[in-house]
Amino acid sequence: MISSKAQYKSKRQQKLEQRQSQSKSFTHSTQTPFRDAERNFKSRLPPPNFDNVIDFYNLDLSSDEIKSKIVKIELKVELGKDDDEEKENIFGDYNELKEEKEIIKGERRIAYVVKDLPGFIFIPNPFTPKAQKNIIKRCLKDFAKYPNKNNLDTHYVLPKEGLWNLHEKIINGELDKNDSRCVVPLKASVTGQNSLYEEEIDAKQEKTQKECPQKSLVEKEYQEKEEREEKGEPLPSSGVPILSPSELIKKLRWITLGYQYHWATKTYHLDKRLPFPKDIELLTTSVVKSINGIKFYTNETNENNDKQYFVNDYDHKKWKPEAGVVNYYQLKDNIMAHVDKSEINMEAPLISFSFGHTCIFLIGGPTRDIAPIALYLRSGDISIMCGPCRTNFHGVPRILEGTLPKYLEPNYDDDPEWKIYGDFMSSSRINVNVRQVF
Ligand SMILES: O=C(O)CCC(=O)C(=O)O
């Protein structure tokens, strides 16, 4: 007897599939094309359709339609190449890059553009594994701590030394399990709500009072609470879980660099400007220099049927990286369609670096009604949005499991220091994106 596969599906599974297909047909008739694309890539069952995702590393395997849209261009200057030859290349040693050819497919002089997306530029990974690891370490150890703001600040009293540093101490057995730092206290406890850790806060308060008798911790927290209420920001909640630094580090979603961002009003705190990290500044300056003057023909024509071209004329001498966001994704995370338009200077490009697992990146047009293009962003890849593309909707609907490059795995080489970072990266993707505000 020939059996159909459906016969072996459990009732629960059949119901689930029925519900999903019903919600799909509803979606197609009522949702925007951007939302449709997001739903496709977020779907676990049935799995997404990856047919039209642009893979810049395997263009020869792409459909003719995709091939006809992509143009390979030469960057104006080699990335990381400085007039001062003695200076260490911020993308890593070029000889090392050549030796690692099998795992690093990018070169330092090429980029790709998409004809119907003028202003979007893709640079395949120009980094050595070592340079990538250095930036990942910076994102976890140095950037994810005070005074940079992050998503956990609202609810937790974060350690000044940084969550990552405490996590490292715990893993390395350097912290006694009774040490109070093994648990991150909730802010709600100091603003009068329930918490199991009030004793700890009391102890902290006593210490603060000794060090700074004029201002107790409670007073400071109340002041912060009032400020948050005035600005319409979320208040600390006692309903969030109480966790150790090692558990909480996996809940880190973003931090801000340079001008700190106020998410509730979508504006920058002009009074909270922190020095921008030099290494990230150097990376972006090199990228902006390399794309200054690139030109290509788009798919558009004018009324005389003349082919239109796009030229990126943003002068790299004007580039000032002033604000940045580091996004930390766990495998199930995503970022929905949005436009980054809080900057006063919308002429300057937005530069974005990917590290760790591969993601699906969607980039559309000025509204969600324009169907987005989907592409893979792998570790080390750089994407740039400038010109008309600077205000286009974009998002990350999916991180792809099992795509961490070998050289970022915890035990890939004999670097004992990397092990703990590699463990974190086994379920993560990190994105660093940088903007000029003025
Ligand atoms: O993770 C990415 O590649 C994009 C992040 C992004 O769109 C954003 O932070 O605005």
Automatic annotation (TrEMBL):
Note on how the cofactor is bound: Binds 1 Fe(2+) ion per subunit.
Instruction: List positions binding Fe cation.
Output: 338, 340, 394
Annotated Fe2OG dioxygenase domain residues: 320-438
Give GO cellular component annotations, separated by semicolons.
cytoplasm; nucleus
Query: Could you name the domain of life of the organism this protein comes from?
Result: Eukaryota
GO terms, molecular function = dioxygenase activity; metal ion binding
**Which key words tag this protein in UniProt?**
Dioxygenase, Iron, Metal-binding, Oxidoreductase
* Segments of skewed composition (Basic and acidic residues): 208-233
User: What InterPro entries does its record include?
Assistant: Alkb, AlkB-like, AlkB-like_sf, Oxoglu/Fe-dep_dioxygenase_dom
Q: Which stretches of sequence are listed as region Disordered?
A: 1-44, 208-238
UniProt lists compositionally biased (Polar residues) regions at 19-33
Does the keyword field hold Oxidoreductase?
Answer: yes
User: What protein is this chain from?
Assistant: Fe2OG dioxygenase domain-containing protein
